[in-house]
Automatic annotation (TrEMBL):
<feature type="domain" description="Thioredoxin">
    <location>
        <begin position="12"/>
        <end position="125"/>
    </location>
</feature>
<protein>
    <submittedName>
        <fullName>Cytochrome c biogenesis protein CcdA</fullName>
    </submittedName>
</protein>
<feature type="transmembrane region" description="Helical">
    <location>
        <begin position="373"/>
        <end position="393"/>
    </location>
</feature>
<keyword id="KW-0732">Signal</keyword>
<feature type="signal peptide">
    <location>
        <begin position="1"/>
        <end position="26"/>
    </location>
</feature>
<dbReference type="InterPro" id="IPR036249">
    <property type="entry name" value="Thioredoxin-like_sf"/>
</dbReference>
<feature type="transmembrane region" description="Helical">
    <location>
        <begin position="200"/>
        <end position="225"/>
    </location>
</feature>
<keyword id="KW-0812">Transmembrane</keyword>
<keyword id="KW-1133">Transmembrane helix</keyword>
<feature type="transmembrane region" description="Helical">
    <location>
        <begin position="405"/>
        <end position="425"/>
    </location>
</feature>
<feature type="transmembrane region" description="Helical">
    <location>
        <begin position="431"/>
        <end position="451"/>
    </location>
</feature>
<feature type="transmembrane region" description="Helical">
    <location>
        <begin position="324"/>
        <end position="353"/>
    </location>
</feature>
<feature type="transmembrane region" description="Helical">
    <location>
        <begin position="271"/>
        <end position="288"/>
    </location>
</feature>
<keyword id="KW-0472">Membrane</keyword>
<dbReference type="InterPro" id="IPR013766">
    <property type="entry name" value="Thioredoxin_domain"/>
</dbReference>
<feature type="transmembrane region" description="Helical">
    <location>
        <begin position="237"/>
        <end position="265"/>
    </location>
</feature>
């Protein structure tokens, strides 16, 4: 009896494998020279996006066939995907999965199209190319033939039979949802956090934080508050400061939304990624240059020619003797004008962030939440300046050395982000690598500043604006 049960179970297993892979043969034994294997999920948006592209390839190439398997709700197809993944050596963590020859793609992005078509052409040109599906079907057929002709083993004890059954019949590795394993950590006062899902939020927080240390915006706010303090009215400070921050935040949010909408409309194309990377590198190089040669040559700062007009506008605003509503109105008008002047100082980070979010194809709600997080963290330093002035009735001053250091930090970080976008943009979707990128950039900033300001001057080596200042000082003495 035990022997019969064992034979039935083994026959069922081999029969299932044979049926699964005979379905591959049924779909591929037509005139197709090359087969595209497409594993998808019913309701998967990226699968729906890729399917028309694959259909177009099959229509374009007469020798190409498309073999597709729904794996979210079909356990037999899950087993087929499992066999493919074992042969090719990948973890089937999600859909869509596309296989051509011995190459595979997990997920679907716009830049995958060129890779898939190139692999298809290479496989068509190579008569010896391996078809994984047919190889697996052939192996299943050979296993079934071998089992049918093999001598039957003697009966086993019941305990041994149970052990062999539990080994022969493992649970499929692919679940119904076929989602990646979650990385959960417990943070004090916060609770469990899914690192995979929060990686985009982390990148948002870091970019927003760095973007907030914008020397142009901090200079304008500091001067505006300093002029307002002469009135001696805390109420005026609150009205002017809050109005200025609210209006500039709204305009900046609209600017970022516009950039995001444009990038989403265009789509995540390879040339868009390269273009954004070049923008980041350009801003990075110019800001890095500004640390050494401040405002010399090309510079993303408020030019000295515009400052007298800004001073005049700010004085007119704070000297407004009308009601608080009138003061708020003039402050809002000033904020609108200043916002457009500041765009050249800070446009790099919004473009980088918008491209990152657009590439992840987030929902409208997710974008609103991420933008809210970005702006909240972006405002932290300006809120600190404003609250300090309102509480102490003293203004903090933005000196050139502070502005140059902020330029260095933003320049190095933009250079790092630009390089990442050219090499592998997906690094920014991982908590560990995104943190590593920013930590390396911050460490490089501190090291450059230390060498430039402390170490080199000890040996009489001056670089950039310091060299001009030193020459001017020596000339004055003579």
């Amino acid at each position: 009896m035990i022997r019969s049960a064992r034979l039935i179970i083994i026959s069922l297993i081999l029969g299932t494998l044979f049926l699964n892979f005979s379905s591959i043969q049924a779909q591929t034994q037509d005139s197709a020279d090359v087969n595209i294997y497409f594993f998808w999920g019913d309701g998967c948006p990226h699968c729906e996006e890729e399917k028309p592209f694959l259909d177009a390839l099959v229509s374009e190439y007469d020798q190409v066939g498309l073999v597709d398997y729904e794996v979210w709700y079909n356990r037999d197809n899950q087993e087929i995907l499992k066999q493919f993944s074992q042969v090719l050596g990948f973890e089937p963590s999600g859909v869509p999965v596309t296989v051509i020859g011995d190459r595979y793609w997990i997920g679907f992005r716009e830049d995958y199209k060129a890779e898939i078509e190139s692999a298809l052409q290479q496989t068509l040109d190579d008569p010896s190319a391996t078809d994984i599906g047919l190889s697996l079907a052939s192996a299943a057929q050979d296993a079934a033939d071998t089992q049918a002709s093999a001598p039957q083993p003697a009966a086993e004890p019941a305990a041994t039979l149970e052990a062999s059954q539990s080994t022969v019949l493992p649970e499929p590795e692919i679940g119904v949802d076929t989602q990646p394993q979650e990385q959960i950590v417990n943070l004090p006062l916060i609770g469990p956090v899914n690192l995979e899902k929060e990686s985009l939020a982390l990148s948002t927080a870091i970019i927003g934080f760095v973007d907030g240390f914008n020397p142009c915006s901090l200079w304008v706010l500091s001067v505006l508050l300093a002029l307002t303090l002469h009135s001696g009215s805390r109420k005026k400070i609150l009205v002017v400061g809050l109005t200025f921050l609210i209006v500039t935040t709204i305009i900046y949010s609209l600017f970022i939304t516009g950039v995001f909408t444009l990038l989403s409309y265009i789509g995540y194309l390879k040339w868009i990624q390269i273009g954004v990377a070049l923008i980041a590198l350009t801003f990075g190089v110019v800001n890095f240059k500004d640390y050494f040669w401040y405002k010399e040559g090309v510079s993303f700062t408020i030019s000295d020619k515009r400052k007298p007009k800004l001073y005049q506008d700010m004085r007119s605003t704070v000297s407004d003797t009308r009601s608080l509503i009138g003061l708020a109105g003039s402050s809002a008008a000033l904020a609108v004008g200043v916002s457009f002047v500041e765009f050249s100082c800070t446009a790099g980070f919004p473009v980088i962030w918008s491209n990152l979010v657009a590439a992840n194809q987030v929902t409208t709600l997710d974008f609103i939440l991420l933008l809210g997080l970005y702006m909240l963290i972006y405002l932290l330093d300006e809120l600190a300046v404003f609250i300090s002035a309102a509480v102490t009735m003293k203004a903090s001053h933005m000196e050139e050395k502070h502005g140059r250091l902020l330029k260095l930090a933003s320049g190095v970080i933009m250079l790092a982000l630009g390089i990442v976008m050219l090499v592998n943009p997906q690094w920014m979707n991982n908590v560990g690598t995104s943190l590593l990128v920013f930590l390396i950039a911050i460490a490089a900033t501190l090291l450059i500043s230390l060498i430039h300001r402390k170490i080199l001057p000890r040996y009489g080596i001056l670089i950039g604006s310091e060299l001009k200042t030193d020459k001017r000082r020596k000339h004055t003495k003579h």
